[in-house]
Structures are given as structure tokens and as C-alpha cells.
Amino acid sequence: MASEKIASLLERNKGFNVALAPPFVADISKRLHTPGGPGGTVIISCSDPRVIPEQYFDFGRGVAAVIRNAGGRTSDALRSLAALDALGNTDTVIIVHHTDCGMTHMPDAGVRKMLKERAPQLSKEIDRMKFGEITDVDESIRQDIALLRASPLISKTVTIVGFNLDILTGQLTEVK
Ligand SMILES: [Zn+2]
């Protein structure tokens, strides 16, 4: 039952360690905008519960902002990237896609089929929508790097790198 899931999560939340309370965003933003200092780092990674940036990069709070969506696709991340850049002066974007990604198992056609059954009145709109299917992980990383590099909304001074995460070994391989 969904309510049992939520109750379980709320129970876990009670154990939050207040000693881990973070600094305020105004202070973080000021530090990242300090001339001569490093700007912010943003990691774009998959929603998959098996691939957690804080685990595969072994960091806690305060090192990088994380955007997660199905597949870790940059097209989906642009709104968040813009807001995070204004707040945190982004100088580095790290894109991570991974082996055995759900988006390699669920083509856009499958998502469209489900949505059309649910909302047949929106069939035309659904036909135009893209859901980020991945047929080749290295290629999807190259596409997503290229999308950000081509976007006038992303500063040309931002370092953009892409990695393929092997979920069995936890190792990252850079994709150029
Ligand atoms: Zn995935």
C-alpha cells in the first residue's frame, strides 16, 4: 500500500542527523561567485536508484549539485542547469550515463504507447514528445555533451565532460 511506503520513509526521516545540517544557499552562492575562486560543479545523472553520484564519486554534501532524471539526459536538465548556474556560477558539468540503464530497455515508442492509452486525447502531442531512449550509452553521452556545447544558454567557459558508469564495477570511463 502506498501509504505504508510513505509511512516507512517518514519513519526513516526521523533519524536525520541535524549535525549534517548544511550552510545557507546565500553563503554558498557568494563563495561560488567569488572572483578567482572555483565555481560550482553540476552532475547530471540517471534517476536509477542503483546509480547515486554521492556514492560513485564518494562525496557528501556541498561538493556538487546533482540533477537526476531518466537516463541522465541533458535535454531534460536545461531548466535546472540554468537556475543552478545563476545561483552557483557553474564552471563544470559532469554527465554520467550507465550500463544496463532503464532507458536502453524502454524505447520512446513504449512510453508513447502507455501514454496514448492513458490520454488518447493527447495523441498528437505525445507523438511529438521525446523521452530520452538510449540505444548506445557512449553515443547518448556524446549527444548530450554536444547538446550542451551547442546551447547558447550554456556558457562557453564551462567544462563539460561525460562518463559511462559500469554498474557492476562502479568504474567511470570518460567518453569523448
Ligand atoms: Zn539509467
Automatic annotation (TrEMBL):
Keyword Zinc included in the entry's annotation: yes
SMART domains in alphabetical order: Pro_CA
Family as reported in the entry's similarity comment: Belongs to the beta-class carbonic anhydrase family.
PANTHER family recorded: CARBON DISULFIDE HYDROLASE, CARBONIC ANHYDRASE
Official protein name in the record: Carbonic anhydrase
Cofactor binding, per record: Binds 1 zinc ion per subunit.
Enzyme class: lyase
Keyword Lyase found: yes
Cofactor(s) listed in the protein's UniProt record: Zn(2+)
Native organism: Mytilinidion resinicola
Binding site for Zn(2+): C46, D48, H98, C101
A GO molecular function held by the record: zinc ion binding
Keyword annotations of the record: Lyase, Metal-binding, Zinc
